[in-house]
Amino acid sequence: MEVRALASVNLAAIERNVGLLRRSAPTSQLCAVVKADGYGHGAVQAARAALAGGAEWLAVATAQEAVEIRGAGITSPLLVLGALTQSEVQVAVGAGADISAWSSEFLDRVVAGGGARVHIKLDTGMGRLGTRDQQLASDLAAVAAQSPGCRLVGVMTHFATADERGDGFFDEQLDCFSQWSAPIAEANPGLLRHAANSAALIRDRRSHFDMVRPGVACYGLDPFGEDPHAQQLEPAMELSSYLAAGKPCEVGQSVGYGRTFIASSPTMTGTIPVGYADGYKRVFSNNGDVLIGGKRFPIVGNVSMDNCSVDLGLNSDPVRLGDKAILLGADGGEEITAEELARQAGTINYEIVTSVSGRVPRRYHRDGAKVGDND
Q1: Structurally, how many domains does the chain consist of?
Q2: One domain for residues 42 and 128
Q3: In this protein, which residues make up the domain named Alanine racemase C-terminal (predicted)?
C-alpha cells in the first residue's frame, strides 16, 4: 500500500451501470445524480463516467456542486435539485444550471433576478421540498413558461417508498404526478416530466416519463438494499488498507478502547489503520469482517478514530504484515458489499459510501487500468 487507506473507484463499472439503466428506460432521457461528491466516488469523475455510459443530464443538490461540475469543463444539462437561497440562485444560474422551484415568492425573485431555466416540483407525498398544492404548482409552471428570461424546462416529483416493493403509496404518488403533469406537458411541447429515482426506474416503467434520475444505482448499489448483483449492477468502490501490526493475544488480554473484546482463548490480533474518521463506522466494533488474502477475519474491539483490529486466529493460513485488507469490496471468492455493511450498521448503503471521508484518497481506474485523478 502506498497510503494507509484508499478508495479505489472503477469508472468502467459506473459507465456500465449507467448503460444498463439507460437500456432499462430506452424512451426516456437519463439524468445521473452526482450530488454528495458523486455519492463519495468523486463528482467530476463520476459525472464523466456517467455521460460516457449514456447519461444526457446530470443532477446535484447544491449550487456549489454545480460550480464544481462546470469548473471541470462539463457542459451537459445540469439540474440543481435542492433548496437555494437568493445568492445561491445566482451562483447556480451563473454556472448554467437549471433550478427547482415550488413557491410563488421564490419564483418571483428568480424572475426579478433575470430568470432561469426552471423545473416545478410537486410534492406528491415525500413531504420535504415541493408544494402539495396542485393548483399552485400549475400556476407556477405557467408563470415560468410566460415570464421573460425564464424557461419552463420540466416538472418533477420524488418518491418516498419506491424502494419498498409492494408498497401502495408509490402507486398513489405515481398516479398523482401523472394526472397533474399531463395537461402541463400537453400545453408545453418538449417539457420534461421526471420522477423516477433508481428504485422507481427498476421497479415500474410507468415512472419513466420523459427523464429518469438514478443516483445510487449508477454506483453499483442496490436501491432496494439487498444484492446489487441481482440487479446486474457492479459496485464501483473498493475501500482498502493494510495489515499494519500483529501480536499474540493471550486469554484475558483485550483489544481497543473499553476492553469490549477480551480473548477467551489464545489468538493473534492485527491492526488495520482505518477508523471512523475515515468513514469506517464505530458501529462495526465486534460487528463486521475484513478480507485479507480472500478470507474473512472478524473485527474485534472498538473501532477507533484511526484504527481497527481483527482476530487473525491461530490456525488460519498465515497472513503477513503489509498484506492488503479490504473493508468494502471483493477479494477472491469473498465480497463485502455496502449492503452488508449497511445491514450491520442499521442504515442504508447510501450512507456507507458517502461516509468515506475526504482524508481517504480516491484512485480511479477502468477495470484495473489506472487513469489520472482528473480523468
Answers
A1: 2
A2: yes
A3: 236-365
